Amino acid sequence: MTEQTSKRVFVLGGARSGKSRFAEGLCTFSGLERHYVATGRAWDDEMRARIEQHKHDRGPLWQTHEEPLALVERLRQIDAAGRIVLVDCLTLWVTNLMMEEGRDMAGEAQALAGLLPQLKASVVLVSNEVGLGIVPENRMAREFRDHAGRLHQSIAASADEVYFVAAGLPLKMKG
After folding, report:
1. Predicted TM-score of the model (pTM)
2. 10 pairs with which residues across the strands?
3. I need a surface site. Which of 21, 48, 56, 130 has the fewest CB within 10 A?
4. Which BP terms from GO are recorded (predicted)?
């Protein structure tokens, strides 16, 4: 990824598959100014500790933006040529949106997928693949899986490259 050409990269995988580490590596090796958009919320002590550990692991060369809901607006704010933005992760963003009253999930997904080709910055988006397991037993979990699956399809369609990561090994699926 170079300063002259922005790229959209989508990285999918299961929990603890190595997808975030792989995505961070793509950003580091790009040589571009690194920005990290964290969508997670610190609801409890364990999550607070995880967030702090992630910040520590990334080090000082990343500018961190915490954005649990207004992802499209935040991407617009920090967009600039010569930057690479890592969004981690889309499934936490979907969870946050679902917890808010009256959010238009399809509209939010459409807005994000539509924005990506317009950005001057390169963007790497990370998400958990949740559609490979059994059908969830409760309605909210099924809706979450469905929202995430539809979002993943629209992001993959607009991405230049798509990777699936399992056991720390990336499989290039597109690009």
Report:
1. 0.93
2. 125, 162
3. 56
4. cobalamin biosynthetic process
Name the residue ranges covered by the structural domains of the chain: 8-174
Helix 90-99 to helix 139-158 angle (10° resolution) is 130
Amino acid at 13: G
Question: Is residue 67 within 8 Å of residue 74, measured between CB atoms?
Answer: yes
152 is in an annotated binding site: no
40 is in an annotated binding site: yes
Contact 8, 123 (CB under 8 A): yes
Fold of 8-174: Rossmann fold (3.40.50)
Per-residue CA distances from 167 to 7, 25, 67, 74 (Å): 25, 16, 28, 31
**Strand, helix or coil at 128?**
strand
What is the set of active-site residues?
Answer: 54
Q: Are residues 61 and 9 in contact, defined by beta-carbon separation less than 8 angstroms?
A: no
